[in-house]
DNA sequence: TAGCAATTGCTAAGCACTTAGGTATTATGA
DNA sequence: TCATAATACCTAAGTGCTTAGCAATTGCTA
């Protein structure tokens, strides 16, 4: 059952026997698991002519509910990226006719991003497929293990964020 | 205890009550935890004038043991990046005098990358600091929870990779 | 209420990755 | 053995992020 991370730990043990490299067992696997999942999800996105970044924007608009209209700042907060990255994502999506930008009547500085009909059709079609892929991955764990994993990840997240 | 992922799930429930979005609870937190950890580790790397990519190369060379000499192909496999990305990482590190490239006497096509003395000093200094940061993060979990988490992540990794 | 600070959203430039493609060398098998 | 395939490594170009910086508007406060 030795995986890549195990081999790295073994190498460290023989080269630096005095160092406690046990944290790498967790953090190394966290990284690799995240990369493997992301890569698997990308296949599904590609089948719908999307990438992870575009899916993210369209899904955020969809789950905001009718009239599917939010600000770039909200998109940035939600995706944990800069507002500049949002602007560039929106440029791409607007060119494809999947979203539309309009002036925010309540804030002269602001913009409101709306899902177009064709954008909504696309994300409504991609979403069930995406969920099926996610389900196929986490089905490797029992329901109890899933909630266990989610709780542990949340605590790691908090520990990494604090300070 | 409601975090960002909980709020996203709540939004989906009210907008698409028929969809089972429970996989997002795990995969969403996997992503966010990995990003938070990566960001925390980056601070430590920066204190040693390194980034994650450079640290990765130097650490791989160090743990290979004396004479700290491996091929770009091995580096690519280990870091799960293209050999082209390795070439660019090495260009940077070689300019800084942290690694050195030489022809592989056993393979006319090949190159051998060696850790220079100054590269070795740098990584030997950064490594304990890095491990301390990793330890500070995973100390949020008991030892048993840590090995539990590592095992669950390995299974998620395998599930995402297969097929 | 005038002026300064904060916010919003954009483009430009820089960075690290990817894929594409080139060159050189080694391995294969007809 | 010799043509062809595979491998190793690189640069170039494209992509999507970041930070820097700009212009416009709004919010705060003296």
From TrEMBL, chains A, B:
Listed InterPro entries: HTH_MarR-typ, WH-like_DNA-bd_sf, WH_DNA-bd_sf
Domain HTH marR-type residues, every copy: 23-158
Keyword Transcription regulation: yes
Keyword Transcription regulation: yes
Keyword annotations from UniProtKB, A to Z: DNA-binding, Transcription, Transcription regulation
Superkingdom to which the source organism belongs: Bacteria
Protein name: MarR family transcriptional regulator
């Amino acid at each position: 059952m030795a995986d890549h991370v195990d081999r790295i730990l073994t190498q460290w043990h023989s080269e630096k026997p005095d160092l406690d490299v046990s944290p790498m067992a967790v953090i190394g696997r966290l990284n690799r698991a995240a990369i493997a999942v992301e890569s698997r999800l990308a296949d599904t996105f590609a089948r719908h002519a999307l990438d992870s970044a575009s899916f993210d924007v369209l899904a955020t608009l969809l789950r905001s509910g009718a009239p599917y209209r939010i600000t770039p700042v909200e998109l940035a907060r939600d995706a944990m990226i800069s507002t500049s990255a949002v602007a560039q994502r929106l440029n791409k999506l607007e060119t494809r006719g999947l979203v539309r930008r309009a002036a925010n009547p309540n804030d002269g500085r602001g913009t409101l991003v709306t899902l177009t009909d064709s954008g909504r059709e696309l994300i409504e079609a991609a979403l069930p497929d995406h969920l099926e892929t996610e389900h196929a991955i986490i089905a490797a764990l029992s329901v109890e293990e899933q909630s266990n994993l989610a709780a542990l990840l949340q605590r790691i997240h908090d520990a990494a964020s604090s300070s």
